[in-house]
């Protein structure tokens, strides 16, 4: 697991946007996995700015979102489809046909989940999957004790997740307690997993994910088994790690390896 520690949330967004832009420029028809939530918003603003400035085009990109509330139609203002249109898709040159978000109002849940997996497979799999992390260690809506090999399915949300997301719903408004989410097995098949987290509220979850055992108690810890997991966090989210300096040292060494200056001795 590569852990990149940036000074603040703005730098986290800029680092991740730059990484994604470079990947798209290298492979214009890439398959991008996306997340919702508060954390990626600054990153999405950076991607919109990069597209408007002509530094990247999403014309050939396909996207798959991690999850959707079960019970909300796509047009619902709290649906994740609506969130993605509002914060990203409406502002970039992507073909809407190539943007997939699980259907929260499908008549047949099992079929909708199987269809989502099949659609990902038809595109050749996900090149880069963006992830956030819940305070309880969830990725997507894979709550603690999810199977580490799970596939897209309907999940019951934990009480802490429902409480965390209540801020997005008006008092008395229907708030779903179920979600359709890619499984941990689905996420582990992405070629690169890029997890972003900012703020002290995520520090304990980050520590459990990076330093703890691989355990269904912290679903994000499954990323220790991912071949290419990159974790980009700010100082606050890194604050519970045992040895922050160690990760910073590795990052400096990685940069030296990527850009050896004249006279840099080989490692
Ligand atoms: C959203 C998702 C969730 C969030 C997580 C963090 O699509 O899959 O796992 O990434 O709940 O949410 P924020 O960023 O709001 O703290």
**Judging by the overall fold, what is the CATH architecture?**
3-Layer(aba) Sandwich
> What is the CATH class designation?
Alpha Beta
Ligands, ions, cofactors: fructose -6-phosphate
Count of alpha and pi helical runs: 9
Low-confidence stretches: none
Number of domains: 1
How many β-strand runs? 10
N-to-C series of helices and strands: EHEHEEHEHEEHEHEHEHH
What is the residue-averaged pLDDT?
96
Coarse shape = globular
Major sheet description: 7 strands, parallel
Strand content: 15-25%
Structural class, from secondary structure content? alpha/beta
Q: Give the termini distance in whole angstroms.
A: 21 Å
The radius of gyration is 18 Å
Order of neighbouring strands in the sheet with most strands: 1-10-9-6-2-3-5
The CATH topology label is: Rossmann fold
Helix content: 25-40%
Detailed description of the structure:
The structure is a single chain. With 267 residues, this protein is α/β, with parallel strands linked by helices. It has one domain: Rossmann fold (3-Layer(aba) Sandwich), CATH 3.40.50.1360. The protein has helices at residues 9-26, 41-52, 80-87, 109-122, 159-165, 184-188, 203-211, 235-238, 244-258, and strands at residues 2-6, 31-34, 62-65, 67-69, 99-100, 128-131, 153-156, 178-181, 192-197, 229-234. The strands form two sheets. The chain has a seven-stranded parallel beta sheet. A three-stranded antiparallel beta sheet has the order 4-8-7. It starts with a strand and ends in a 9-residue tail after the last helix. Bound molecules: fructose -6-phosphate (F6R). Residues 35-39, 66-67, 132-134, 138-141 line the site of fructose -6-phosphate (F6R). Fructose -6-phosphate (F6R) is lined by residues 35-39, 66-67, 132-134, 138-141.
């Amino acid at each position: 697991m590569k852990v990149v520690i940036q000074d603040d949330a703005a730098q986290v967004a800029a680092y991740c946007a730059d990484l994604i832009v470079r990947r798209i420029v290298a492979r214009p028809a890439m398959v991008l996995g996306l997340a919702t939530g508060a954390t990626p918003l600054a990153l999405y603003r950076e991607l919109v700015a990069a597209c408007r400035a002509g530094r990247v085009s999403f014309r050939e990109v396909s996207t798959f979102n991690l999850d959707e509330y079960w019970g909300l139609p796509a047009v619902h203002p709290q649906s994740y489809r609506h969130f993605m249109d509002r914060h990203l898709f409406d502002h970039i040159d992507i073909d809407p046909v190539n943007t997939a978000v699980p259907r929260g109002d499908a008549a047949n849940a099992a079929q909708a989940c199987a269809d989502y997996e099949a659609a990902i497979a038809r595109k050749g799999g996900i090149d880069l999957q963006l992830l956030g992390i819940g305070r309880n260690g969830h990725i997507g809506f894979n709550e603690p004790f999810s199977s580490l090999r799970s596939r897209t399915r309907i999940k019951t949300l934990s009480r802490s997740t429902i409480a965390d997301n209540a801020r997005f719903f008006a008092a008395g408004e229907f708030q779903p307690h179920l979600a359709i989410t890619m499984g941990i097995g689905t996420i582990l098949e992405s070629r690169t997993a890029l997890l972003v987290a900012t703020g002290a509220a995520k520090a304990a979850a980050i520590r459990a994910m990076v330093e703890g055992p691989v355990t269904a108690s912290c679903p994000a810890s499954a990323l220790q088994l991912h071949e290419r997991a990159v974790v980009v966090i700010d100082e606050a989210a890194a604050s519970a790690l045992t040895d922050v300096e160690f990760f910073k040292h590795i990052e400096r060494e990685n940069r030296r390896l990527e850009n050896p200056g004249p006279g840099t001795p080989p490692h």
